[in-house]
Amino acid sequence: SINGKCFDWLLISRRSCFRAGVRYYVRGIDSEGHAANFVETEQIVHYRGSKASFVQTRGSIPFFWSQRPNLKYKPKPQISKSVNHMDGFQRHFDSQIISYGKQMIVNLVNQKGSEKPLEQTFSKMVNSMANGMVRYVAFDFHKECSRMRWDRLQILMDQLADQQDE
């Protein structure tokens, strides 16, 4: 109940049965385009007979890469050089568009250091795909929100506002 108005709010997460695994051991995609550790989360609001739904998905960056555990706190990501990334990448987004429609990709990885190549490759691949149903936004979460400056998330929210309203 908010301001005396009662409604039902449901939150449902569905984890994919493809490419499930623990952090660092399972990364990227397979040849079918299944992203590692993919989860679909749906919010459903029911108010006075009306329903609204919003679906958000998350998963590993959808190209071929790995991050092998070692004695370091955060192992360096390795992007595969011996495969065609675009085939699996295209399959991943074709499936996403069929299931969910227009896509807004929000990439929160560091845009410097060891994660920089992941962000650069992801951005390049989205641009190469040239699909009007897919929009890409990179937001360096660690840089922008360091020292618990959560108010800086408003920068990201402003970047996403128009498409989210749509």
Automatic annotation (TrEMBL):
Q: What are the EC numbers? A: 3.1.3.64
A GO cellular component term found in this entry reads:
endoplasmic reticulum
Which InterPro entries does the UniProt record give?
Answer: SAC_dom
Q: Which reaction does it catalyse?
A: a 1,2-diacyl-sn-glycero-3-phospho-(1D-myo-inositol 4-phosphate) + H2O = a 1,2-diacyl-sn-glycero-3-phospho-(1D-myo-inositol) + phosphate; a 1,2-diacyl-sn-glycero-3-phospho-(1D-myo-inositol-3-phosphate) + H2O = a 1,2-diacyl-sn-glycero-3-phospho-(1D-myo-inositol) + phosphate
**Which biological process, per GO, is one annotated for this protein?**
phosphatidylinositol dephosphorylation
Cross-referenced PROSITE patterns = SAC
Please report the stretch or stretches of sequence annotated as the SAC domain: 1-166
GO terms (molecular function) for this protein are: phosphatidylinositol-3-phosphate phosphatase activity; phosphatidylinositol-4-phosphate phosphatase activity
User: Entry's PANTHER family?
Assistant: PHOSPHATIDYLINOSITIDE PHOSPHATASE SAC1 (PTHR45662), PHOSPHATIDYLINOSITOL-3-PHOSPHATASE SAC1 (PTHR45662:SF2)
The name under which this protein is listed is Phosphatidylinositol-3-phosphatase SAC1
Name the lineage: Eukaryota, Metazoa, Chordata, Craniata, Vertebrata
